[in-house]
Please model this.
Amino acid sequence: MSAERTAKADAAASANIIKSITQYEKELDFAQLVATMRAHAGNVDAQEQGCRALVNLTVNYDNKVKAGSAGAVEAVVAAMRAHASNAGVQEQGCLALRNMTGNNDANQVKAGSAGAIEAVVAAMRAHASNAGVQEEGKIVLDRLKR
Model:
């Protein structure tokens, strides 16, 4: 297969994965959203979109609980580790961690156990000029240092 055909196939696959993530977001299906992130851990677009979906969904307490129960905290940390050089994944990951750990002690514990502090520090170091990573990362670190 030529490089051009491979790139087109990869783009089509990413588009289908993102479409699935968007559908799971609409359905509030945290289990499928997390499963898709895990199944496509190497796909940077899937990881960024998965983190973005979690940002959108976890603005209320009930959804924070559901996300935490589905393994979303751990999935976000894994995405951040796997795609450390991608600013979009890092910023959306920090935002998702910020939302999921806000006023939720259980998710704060999960984040600490999953290595969120290390992932956020690495993101802040790698993306020192990205204001979003810096601002959201600081909020997450302040929450998790307790």
Observations:
- The chain has nine helices and no strands.
- Residues 3-144 form a domain with the Leucine-rich Repeat Variant fold (CATH 1.25.10.10).
- The mean pLDDT is 96.
- The first helix runs from residue 3 to 27.
